[in-house]
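Protein data:
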Amino acid sequence: MNNSSKFTSATIAKLAMMTAVSIVLLLIIRIPFPPAPFLVYDPADVPIYITAFAFGPAAGLIVTLIVCLIQAFMLGGDGLYGFLMHFVATGIVAVVIGLMYSKCKTKKRAIISLAVAVIVATAVMCVMNILVTPAYMGAPREAVVAMIPTVIIPFNLLKAGLNAVLTFILYKRVSGFLHGGQQIITETTE
């Protein structure tokens, strides 16, 4: 949320709706990543990214938190490990795009913020896997490090990148609803 705005009942309802859409997407679209089938692509982050664009990083983090809690502890996710990894991966993107886009709401800034967010999230998830995966999964750190270039980087670039592209395609179409008819991404030549 912007510093000057408040969580109105209408905004809370929209955040709840985006949370519900994210959960539905999580349940109906799940594609295992072939090099490591324990990693699964889903488009559930798209509504979260859209929320961060529309309402800022705090709102994006709130929706991320709720979705991650539901997935990890109510839908048979990977418990605390899955919650932590999903929250960090998605939360980083929500914060980066929410902060960058709120400064200058143009199509160019939307593209740049999505690209930067994908790169930052991928880098952070490499570190998270090196630090967290051995402790929670019992995998040797060397085995995790060996997976960084062949599994971790490609998966995170693919998942965050595909969700970023879907967000860019869909955001303008749903922003009118989220903002009561206001168009947020402006056409500029910048």
In short: The CA atoms of residues 95 and 122 lie 14 Å apart. Residues 9-178 form a domain with the Arp2/3 complex 21 kDa subunit ARPC3 fold (CATH 1.10.1760.20). The beta strands are 31-33, 36-41.
